[in-house]
Amino acid sequence: MELLDLSGSSISDSGIGMICNVFPETLLKLLLALCPNITSSGIQFTAAQLPRLELMDFGMTICDPNLEISNEEGNDSDLQRTSNSKLQLIYQKLIIKHSRLKKLSLWGCSGLDALYLNCPQLVDLNINSCRNLHSERLLLQCPNFESVHASGCQDMMVKTIQNQVCYDFSAVENHFPYKRVPDGSKRVRVPYLFSLQPCDEEKKCSRARKRLCAVIST
C-alpha cells in the first residue's frame, strides 16, 4: 500500500505505531488530518519509522488547548485563570528529520509552539493557522523549499520564515572573484561568465539561484 487516508478518524499514537509496523517500506502518502488524538510524539514516530514517505498531512491534529478549555469552562473567571496557568505545559513541539519527505501539512495545528525541520527534499510546507508557533522556536533546514503557506501566523513568524527560506541574493555577489584591471589600479568583481575560477564557486552560485521560495501569508 502506498496511500493511506484515515482523516477524521479517532486514531491515536498507538494506532500510528501499528501502521508503521505494517507498511514500513511501502507507504508513500499518509493522510491523518482532523485526528485529534494524535500528538507531536506520534507525528515524530511516523517520520522516523516510515522512511519512504513523501507526503504527510496532520492538519488540525494538535489544536490549541486554550480554546478547548475555554469552551468547556464557559465564563468562569476563576477556572479560566487556573487553566491558563497550566497551558504553558500543554503546548507541544515538533521535530522532524526525513530524507525523502516532499510535502508536509500541519494546517490548523495551533497547539504547536515550536517546529524544527530537517528535510532536504521538502518542497511544500503548510502551517496555515499555526498561530501559536514562536519565531524563536522555528528552524527550517529544507534547502529545496518552493512554497510555505503561513496564513494566520504571527507577523514575526512570517518574517522569520522568509529569512530562513528566501535566499539573500546579495550573498551571491560576495562569491564573485576579484580581478585586477589591466593598469593595476584596482580590483573589481568578475561575473562567472568571464571567470576562470574553479567550478566549485560556480556551483555555490547555482545553488543560490535555485533557492526560490514563495512564502504565502494572505
From TrEMBL:
InterPro entries to which the protein is assigned, alphabetical: F-box_LRR-repeat, LRR_dom_sf
Matching Gene3D superfamilies: Ribonuclease Inhibitor
Top-rank taxon: Eukaryota
UniProt signal peptide: none
SUPFAM superfamilies membership: RNI-like (SSF52047)
Stated name of the protein: F-box/LRR-repeat protein 17
